[in-house]
Amino acid sequence: MEKFRTVTYEVHNPKIKKGVRFAVLADLHGTIFGEENSALLQKIQEYAPDAILLAGDMVVRMDPSTLETARKLLGTLVKDFPIFYAMGNHETKMKAEGHIYRNEYLEYQSELEQKGICFLANEKTKATLAGNPFVINGLELPLEYYHKPFSPKLRGEKLEELIGKPDSEAINILLAHNPKYGKTYFHWGADLILSGHYHGGVLRFSRHVGAISSQFIPFPKYCCGDFYKKGKCMIVSAGLGEHTVPLRIHNPRELIFIEMKP
């Protein structure tokens, strides 16, 4: 059976009035932990989060069987927890005009939306969780921002063009799959930023240091773990799965839990 570890982060924010708990899934890529993902389901259900946040790449764009894996997992979880789903590059590519599995992807998204999952493609939604006012923002970057090895800088004006400004009255969560642009995300003003994409840098040296990014950048700045700036927090998941090159060295798959506290 595939294995994963759980990592819990405690994040303090003065806007929080009562503690709130999140489970964060990133880069599942169709990986299965136990029969029909029973091991993953059990861990999440035991933790009983106030919401589940998806930081993208639940699927593999050229493998439609991964849609069914994610559909079953999320269809079960949404019966018990609110789920907010931001796009990774695999979702963005799969739903694009002309993609061989576009229709399959659109059916997958439609079915999960009907079950109550909130998909956020450069959209935002308000949510009250444990009595706290949240705005959850789902960033969908144009694919040029994933180019290997060179992709453009993400400027603050472009980020605002894509997703608007944060809500000064609420606690702002930014689901942003690609952590390369962490500096811009911090500057934008999110209280909590959640990313994935780098798969822990393949070879992980420490809590924050991995060997290489998915865009072939050595020792990327926001590779894995937690980062802080002026009271804001960014957490980058090492992911629950991988694709194409299934290699992980000192870099276990991880399910992230977050405790946000006053």
Low-confidence stretches: none
Beta-strand fraction estimate: 25-35%
Shape: globular
Rg calculated over all Cα atoms: 17 Å
> Helix tally?
6
Helix and strand run: EEHEHEHHEEEHEHEEEE
Helix content: 10-25%
Give the overall pLDDT as a whole number: 96
* Structural class estimated from helices and strands: alpha/beta
Q: Major sheet: size, sense and barrel closure?
A: 6 strands, mixed
Q: What gap, in angstroms, lies between the N and C termini?
A: 38 Å
The number of strands is 12
- Major sheet: arrangement of strands: 1-12-2-3-4-5
Note down, in words, how this protein is organized.
With 262 residues, this protein is an alpha/beta fold. Helices cover 22% and strands 26% of the residues. It has 6 helices and 12 strands. The protein has helices at residues 38-47, 65-77, 89-94, 102-114, 156-163, 182-188; strands spanning 5-12, 20-25, 51-54, 83-86, 118-120, 123-129, 132-139, 171-176, 192-195, 225-229, 232-236, 254-261. Strands 1-12-2-3-4-5 form a 6-stranded mixed beta sheet, with helices on one face. A 6-stranded mixed beta sheet has the order 6-7-8-9-11-10, covered by helices on one side. Strand 3 (51-54), helix 2 (65-77) and strand 4 (83-86) form a beta-alpha-beta unit. Helix 2 runs parallel beside helix 4 (102-114). The chain is globular and about 45 Å long.
